[in-house]
């Protein structure tokens, strides 16, 4: 059975294979010629094959030597790439980031931010998982995700975060609703309307935000239907089962059967943040956080 050579032996062998001259190979490696001759003989003995045909005037590769040289050059390049990639990972210029994102973050600036980040750092791979804000909290604690785009109001004290977007609530109405043609809607106008809201299990924080703005107007929304995801929520609104509130960024994704109308008044907004656990920070994750902070500060 052939015993594979070590990297030191391959380096000496390739120097001779490239120059076909033991003296030139020794000069390239800055070692004595007898040392490189011994290294090649030891390698041939270890492999059980003659790698070079030698005469007093000429050195050439045997068929076995040529095969080894081709593979060794590929291996040397692969090792160089691996070492370079290792340095990039340590510097935060390469790696993989697993990111959770809530439904409310999906329609905001998150996508644009991540596209720009990937353009700047093409060697960083991003994996995305749709999760509620509450699911992201436990996933960050358990290191199942590295970063999360979630509702700022859901963030617990042990997590660090920076706001990346501020969303204003809009009213979502079925196309035939009495307020569908209004330029804007007052929350008080929805007092007696049935509401379609996300389920209390997965949309706990967002429901609390909606209920909070309604309570400031003196009423608690009457929940007629609940949905676990956005398509079902919109489908129920389109079917006339109720109205709802959502972030304004969803306007561009609405079907013609659902109308989005701005809300009149102040304090009708909420914040989206990127959050992370300070004890579980990858260099590439820090790159994304710094990038997000720079974008937020520049207002870009």
Commentary on this structure:
- The chain is built from ten helices and twelve strands.
- Helix 8 links the parallel strand 8 and strand 9.
- By secondary structure, the chain is an alpha/beta fold.
- It has helices at 7-19, 22-29, 33-47, 63-91, 103-106, 110-120, 133-141, 204-216, 230-238, 283-298, and strands at residues 52-54, 59-61, 95-101, 124-130, 147-151, 160-174, 185-186, 194-198, 222-227, 244-247, 258-264, 269-276.
- Strands 3, 4, 5, 6, 7, 10, 11 and 12 form an eight-stranded mixed β-sheet that branches. A two-stranded antiparallel sheet has the order 1-2. A two-stranded parallel sheet has the order 8-9.
- It folds into two domains: 7-91, Winged helix-like DNA-binding domain superfamily/Winged helix DNA-binding domain (Arc Repressor Mutant, subunit A), CATH 1.10.10.10; 96-300, D-Maltodextrin-Binding Protein, domain 2.
- The mean pLDDT is 89.
- It is rod-shaped, with a radius of gyration of 32 Å.
- Helix 1 (7-19) crosses helix 3 (33-47) and helix 1 packs across helix 4.
- This is LysR family transcriptional regulator.
Radius of gyration: 32 Å
Summarize the biggest pleated sheet. 8 strands, mixed
The number of E-state strands comes to 12
Question: Count of DSSP helices?
Answer: 10
Shape: rod-shaped
Q: What is the residue-mean pLDDT, rounded to a whole number?
A: 89
Tally of individual domains: 2
Q: Please state roughly what percent of the residues sit in beta strands, choosing from under 5%, 5-15%, 15-25%, 25-35%, 35-45% or over 45%.
A: 15-25%
Order of helices and strands: HHHEEHEHHEHEEEEHEHEEEH
**pLDDT < 50 stretches:** none
